[in-house]
Amino acid sequence: MANVTSTWTEPSNTATALLLLGRGTDPASERGVDCPGDLPAPSDPDLVARATAAKAALGDRVFVLGHHYQRDEVIQFADVTGDSFKLAQQAAARPDAEFIVFCGVHFMAESADILTTARQRVILPDLAAGCSMADMAVLGQVETAWERFEDLGIAADVVPVTYMNSSADIKGFVGRNKGVVCTSSNAKRALTWSFEQGSKVFFLPDQHLGRNTAVLEMGFDLDDCVLYDPHKPGGGLTDDELRDARMILWRGHCSVHGRFTLDSVREVRERVPGVNVLVHPECRHDVVRAADQVGSTEYIIKALDAAPSGSAWAVGTELNLVRRLALAHPDKQIMFLDRTVCYCSTMNRIDLPHLVWALEELVAGRVPNVITVDEETAANARVALDQMLALP
Ligand code: 13P
Ligand code: SF4
After folding, report:
1. Which of 9, 71, 205, 343 could be stapled to 252 by a disulfide with Cβ–Cβ 3.0 to 4.6 Å?
2. Would you say 124 and 367 are in contact if contact means Cβ atoms under 8 Å apart?
3. Are 161 and 202 a contacting pair, CB within 8 Å?
4. Any idea which ligand is nearest the CA of 137?
5. How far apart are CA 328 and CA 326, in angstroms?
6. pLDDT digits (tens, 9 = 90+) for 234-271
7. CA of 301 to the centre of ligand 1 (A)
8. Within a 13 Å sphere around the CA of 309, how many CA atoms are in the beta-carbon half?
């Protein structure tokens, strides 16, 4: 059996790969706010013991959710790990937990707040854990686009679909306009349902998930898709382009998955004969087309669990997850698709000091970093989230 130390190669570092973590602000993040609180030092040797003790003291009052892109030091304290779909389901299924500590990013915590009861509180250990993709669709811009569809007389035919990776405002807009939320695990089901309700879909905010699902899973042509650019007058589209389109894609993308290129795929195929290329659908269309398999983080985990011993895999998703999978399967050659480091810098903001701080605050009777969505937005967003949870 191959030893993992001989198969896992750490990608090389780049100057921009990681933002400074911990205290301070990230103006480019979904919220771009500072995280208050007196955090323990990252070098504190007792951090694991402190997190363990605080969690034990809280018992069933706390439920910790961990997205697959979280650091190992954090994921070890998660009661449940999952992709964004599974975590939304899990948040909705825990009405007894007083506190949901969400180790993920802001839009996930917002969705958890919408899906939990009024009595429960959702806590994001670092308020600066936003998402650059979610930032790419702002409510005012989306409403401007919708007004254009109304002026053109096509709005009644358009079903808005938003990826989970969007703010609660955008989910509220989608709920108000009879649409649905989707995740990378159910995008095909969401689009199938949407095309039963109308003849066009307005897909927010990830152009790649929208295009990849429509073209590679639903049989649409690339010509059926148009790209609405919120920074151009009228979205940069003519009236005829909008009238003819089946998929109106918002110009947004994931800055992590956008790093993988066709060259990365070609290079690994040359270097490792017989390698299986497995990528997330947030990757660019040419990358997904060149891959052997595509799927959500949950799909990627299952595919590697089921892979035969000795098989080789180049995986195009966030590095914390790929490294964890490589270490969990030392009999398989699992490598990162890119040559350089590719963490999600905002996911990485939740580190052990922030988790310890949040848990210890709860033990002390203070509730830090509560994520609350206002009632009206939450009610509208819940329509679109419930529609997702009810998809056939
Ligand atoms: P999933 O967890 O739905 O696969 O999405 C990946 C992602 O980018 C989360 O931010
Ligand atoms: Fe956002 Fe991409 Fe990070 Fe997911 S991986 S939180 S989509 S920036």
Report:
1. 205
2. no
3. yes
4. 2
5. 5
6. 999 999 999 999 999 999 999 999 999 999 999 999 99
7. 13
8. 5
